[in-house]
């Protein structure tokens, strides 16, 4: 009886050891099968942290938040009722580091260049960043109207990160700016650099509040 008891106990232990090993193998396979899905959904963008103090209005340049918004129709004008929207900040185009992003690809376009004051342009149109309030996407052409009566065309080169804009995703919380020009800091006009405001451009009439932005194309 004692011998039979030990034999049954040995069989019982062997059965559970084998079953435990099989479960471990299956768990490992499940992890390996799940991991590729995690990697495919990893959209974290790499930022240029060496330039984090480059300008006081630094946004997450590589993060295009417009995916969660319905794009508005061509010809739609977004009016701006805020009182003080005169500040027009800037960001260096080198802050765009995610090579897979629409922002980066736009900067590589053959029609993009830097003008004499340091503004980045594409086919004579300024390149700007705006908030999700405008429901625009990278690459869209817009027309900016100022309170001084002036208007100019621009291409949306980036969408401001919601983390840094107000509850409407319109203004930059830190400085109240609506427009953020994309520039080459190495060539930026010294007065603009000193003031931190593109309104001080000598060659362009950027004075006044931003009163509206009109979507010109899709």
Explain how this protein is built.
The chain is of the alpha+beta class and 218 residues long. The chain has 2 domains: 1-42; 49-215, no CATH class. Helix content is 23%, strand content 21%. It has 3 helices and 9 strands; from the N terminus they run H-E-E-H-E-E-E-E-E-E-H-E. The protein has helices spanning 2-40, 102-107, 190-195; strands spanning 77-79, 88-92, 112-114, 120-122, 125-130, 141-146, 151-159, 179-183, 210-215. A hairpin with a 2-residue loop joins strand 4 and strand 5 (125-130).
Protein topology:
Blueprint: H1 2-40, E1 77-79, E2 88-92, H2 102-107, E3 112-114, E4 120-122, E5 125-130, E6 141-146, E7 151-159, E8 179-183, H3 190-195, E9 210-215
Parallel strand pairs: 2-8, 5-7
Antiparallel strand pairs: 1-9, 3-4, 4-5, 5-8, 6-7, 6-9
């Amino acid at each position: 009886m004692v011998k039979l008891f030990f034999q049954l106990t040995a069989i019982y232990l062997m059965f559970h050891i084998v079953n435990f090993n099989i479960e471990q193998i299956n768990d490992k396979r499940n992890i390996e099968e799940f991991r590729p899905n995690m990697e495919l959904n990893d959209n974290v963008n790499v930022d240029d942290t060496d330039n984090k103090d480059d300008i006081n209005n630094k946004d997450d340049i590589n993060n295009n938040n417009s995916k969660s918004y319905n794009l508005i129709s061509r010809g739609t004008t977004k009016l701006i009722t805020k009182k003080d929207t005169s500040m027009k900040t800037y960001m260096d185009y080198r802050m765009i580091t995610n090579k897979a992003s629409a922002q980066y690809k736009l900067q590589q376009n053959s029609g993009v260049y830097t003008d004499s004051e340091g503004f980045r342009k594409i086919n004579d149109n300024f390149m700007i960043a705006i908030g999700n309030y405008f429901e625009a996407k990278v690459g869209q052409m817009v027309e900016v109207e100022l309170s001084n009566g002036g208007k100019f065309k621009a291409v949306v080169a980036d969408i401001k990160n919601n983390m840094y804009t107000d509850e409407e995703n319109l203004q930059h919380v830190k400085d109240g700016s609506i427009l953020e020009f994309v520039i080459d800091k190495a060539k930026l006009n010294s007065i603009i650099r000193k003031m931190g405001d593109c309104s001080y451009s000598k060659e362009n009439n950027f004075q006044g509040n931003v009163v509206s932005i009109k979507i010109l194309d899709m």
